[in-house]
């Protein structure tokens, strides 16, 4: 390998990044911009979910329960229903997202310490909201039951003081965090750093479109010099984002960064090598920029959302998808970023993921070099 | 001078079902200024790309400056300067940066680059545009820059694919003056062109048609192969004149150039009076009638027609 060739390609590509506005924005601005946008839209908390109630018990206890359920901002009582058919009607019309049916023996069972006879119906077409409603109804019901039980215990002549440690513990358990989910920022990092990979996928296609590829292939430059020379500038540009984004995350979203920054930079460089190699494979096969861009969306961006364990746990994916996720650099990097940001884990614990990224990077680069021919047509 | 500097034997290249090159046999000697002429789609670009090592050789053999391209096409690359048909430099880089980039790619040492670049810039008349981005150059300047980029490593072989297409006549002339200088310095140049006046400036011309080399000779010899003489006739109504002349005895071919007709006849002396008489009879005024020497253009069209007729 000739380092003169390599450096000449790197320098030319860096000049392109800095001089071409489109590339500059895609590589250096888009990652931060998308991260801000996504954090804001994903960290929004669900509020004011409309629910209906059907009270078969009609006791003071059930009325007290209803009052407590709807006391917060999370659940709003839309209607007191009188029959199941009315609830069905409301659900079908989308007026409510969940319904609570209080059984006829609600207060009797509760006071007899036999549990809560409650039924919750949710709108399954919106599982996110439905799940939220179930969680919140559950928390409030549990808290309500605990209060009643505490009263009962008191009535039975046991001092509340002796129960206090247990009681306190229960209350701290069921204090739902309503903070925006800023913990998604580290996970998102592995998605937004896919944008430099887009650029790498485009860079070979651009040379084809501008027929500079023809001129380049006619020179004695070697394939690996060309591929690495095109990748390294985008790794450097990606690292600029790796520095900027944590600063924004800390200053703007108060995300804690407890790890070692230099180690993080090194691990990020390894990730970028793997991710950009994937972009390079796309670039080798796609001869036009539009095709390369479309494939990048399919191969880099969408799996980044669904298969890297950022939003959906990998363990819950079907087996095929689980296998695929192992081949995505983002999966391993998401573990690294989450470990570095919050618990502050270092390279001593994260090295297996770094090794996996290096293996993926070498494999992708190998595939790219294998299929990239110094020939036209 | 080495004979058979470039030797092509039975070179065949297919793209799916389309035969781009059909068993081409061609020998080019060192120091030749070889013009490759032929209509669009004849296979000029495919042949030049093959000689540049840009296409896999699937049939036949190509020996070029001691390299066997059918075995290893990479070995030829340091020895050639190749200029693609379309503008193929980096628009975001300046004139100087483009030159330096290709200098690096061809392993020209920095000191040699420093020595050669000012000369090349002057040669290509780009000295005052040294720092201008390549995208902002005029068409002619782009072509000259592309040529300069292929010359930095002083290759013994230059392959130029329609270097003057889309360039104004003044720039074309300048470009050919540069090629002539390089020819005199001993560089072997293969240039493809759709312009027949340019073919006249070559030392050797290969006519390529439907993937075959149909004629390969010096321009003078090709002109003489036409087999007949040309009479130029200008009238007010070339369409009517053409209708009258076409069926006359001894008229082999009528080519139209604007208002003028170039008529290929077996013998000019025998036929010129006959043509005049026929036109007078039809009451057409003759503005001009004279015997002309065939140019490459007439020769080229005549040769292609002959091939088409024999099919």
Q: Which whole number gives the mean pLDDT of chain B?
A: 90
Biggest sheet details of chain A: 4 strands, mixed
Number of H- or I-type helical stretches of chain A:
16
The average pLDDT score of chain A comes to 84
How much helicity do the residues of chain B have? Answer: 25-40%
Estimate percent helicity of chain A: 55-70%
Chain pair with largest interface: A-B, 26 and 33 residues
What is the number of domains of chain A? 2
What would CATH call the homologous superfamily of the largest domain in chain B? P-loop containing nucleotide triphosphate hydrolases
Residue runs with pLDDT of under 50 for 5 or more positions of chain A: 162-180
**SSE string of chain A, helix = H, strand = E?**
HHEHEHEHEHHHHHHHHHHH
Distance between the termini of chain A: 25 Å
What is the domain tally of chain B?
2
> Which word captures the global form of chain B?
globular
Biggest sheet character of chain B: 6 strands, mixed
Strand order of the largest sheet of chain B: 6-7-8-3-9-10
Provide a compact summary of the structure.
The complex is a heterodimer of chains A (377) and B (311). Chain A has 377 residues and is α/β, with parallel strands linked by helices.
What does this structure look like?
- The complex is a heterodimer of chains A (377) and B (311).
- Chain A contains 16 helices and four strands.
- Chain A is an alpha/beta fold.
- Chain A is elongated, with a radius of gyration of 28 Å.
- Chain B contains ten helices and 14 strands.
- Chain B has helices at 44-51, 95-105, 110-123, 139-151, 169-184, 196-199, 219-224, 238-245, 268-281, 296-309, and strands at residues 6-15, 18-28, 33-37, 59-64, 67-68, 80-83, 157-161, 188-193, 204-209, 212-217, 229-235, 251-257, 260-265, 286-292.
- In chain B, strand 9 (204-209) and strand 10 (212-217) form a beta hairpin.
- The relative contact order of chain B is 0.13.
- The mean pLDDT of chain B is 90.
